[in-house]
Amino acid sequence: VEIESKKNTFDLTALKQIDPYGAVSLLCVILDRVRSANHVHLIVDEGLVCQTLKAHQFFLQVEACCGGKVSWDKNILYGSTFHDNTMLMPITAVTIKGAERSLAEELVVLLRKQGFHDSVGRGIAQIIGELADNAMTHSAQALGDRICWVAAQRFLYREKNCIIVGLADPGLGIFSTLKTKAEYKALTDSQALLKAFRPFVTSWEAARGKGLTDVLGIALGNNSYLHADVCNLSLQMDFHDGSNPEIKFRTPLTDVTGTRFGLILIDNYFVKKSREEVNKMLEEKERQM
After folding, report:
1. Distance between CA 59 and CA 109 in Å, rounded?
2. Which of the listed residues 125, 130, 137, 203 has the most CB atoms within 10 Å of its CB?
3. Distance between CA atoms of residues 176 and 271, nearest Å
4. 20-64 tens-digit pLDDT
5. 288 to each of 7, 230, 233, 275, 284, how far by Cα in Å?
């Protein structure tokens, strides 16, 4: 949905629905625009989307990151008591490496209380840890400061409890960071983005580069969904049909700098796929692309 009604004015009332993946993506849009504009204005109303964004602490994060450069009619949402009982974690900023662990632990406790299987909780904890570590690296290289945002929400799909996690950083983006290393420099952006999920593919000199592979192994084992928007690319991975994984490049929610992840896990017992299995699947997809 195109919500920029005029330059540097974003009409949030045009949105029909939003989830954590959309919320952290929208936050990155606003931050990106603030970098180049003296002022950004948001149009809000008392509708469900703006109330949901308030419950997600979206506006608090905008204020914290942008100061007085972003404005909206605060009287419209002031004092509203809308409560979204599906929200597990509002948008939370992580600025210190390792701080994501306590967030993940809190989320695991909440999931357990709501009846989610322990394997889902363990998977979510590992995913947040790996993605946050990756995001902090990219943001530090671009900004000099480490920061990423995490949010999570529960929902029901085909009578199954599910959780969607959104995680974003305003950094260089995965493929740009990877291509700083000589052996990956000649890759196209899309080739580099897909290759970043392969084991031991990294911009570091040391033997790292397993985190994104492990995230993919969890999504693949859970027969779920993972979206990775990086700058102007979107890698959408649909694993709901375990026998036929689907990976496609599509238009991202937004084309601002940085990386935005959206991950869905379905509440059931599952076993994470091995790095070897993930690598084999990605090799096949690379050949097809």
Report:
1. 26
2. 137
3. 32
4. 999 999 999 999 999 888 899 999 999 999 999 998 899 999 999
5. 40, 21, 18, 20, 6
